[in-house]
Design a protein that fits this description.
The protein is about 75% helix and about 0% strand. By secondary structure, the protein is mostly helical. It folds into two domains: about 90 residues, no CATH class; about 50 residues. Helix 8 packs antiparallel against helix 9. The radius of gyration is 18 Å and the shape is elongated. The termini are close together. The relative contact order is 0.12. InterPro entries: RNaseH-like_sf.
Amino acid sequence: MEDIGKLEEVQKTIEEGKTVTGLIYNHQFMTDQFREMNDGITRFATHAVALESLCCAKANIMQIWTCTAYVNSEFSRMPSAHRVQKIVHGTELWYKSERITYLLEHLVLVLKLVDGDTKPTMGYVYDAMDRAKLAIEQRSGEKYGTYYRKL
């Protein structure tokens, strides 16, 4: 997983995701807006899970920049808010986040399995990892074969 995170495309997408979430969580106004639009759910974990959470909250995150409370706020005039707004309303972050989440879905499931309260046997973990690698290989095609090779 760490090697996949070092790929340039993945790093750039994660950095943009961090920029968006950093702005939301480092400013109370944005956090309040996000909580209001996202039913109070504001928790992100690992980078892969964070990208998945970002994708799930896409509509709410995009809506922040068009809501009346934001438009009328002093915060809307900050350069950092404009920079993040450009990222959020672009397509690159969302496309790449969804693609990475799709490709790594099975690997994240293996990580959750290993991190759970009940520890599975090593044979079960190896089998789950082999299945995850196979799923990544099948989903990735030629363009994203580097994800599979990193495993």
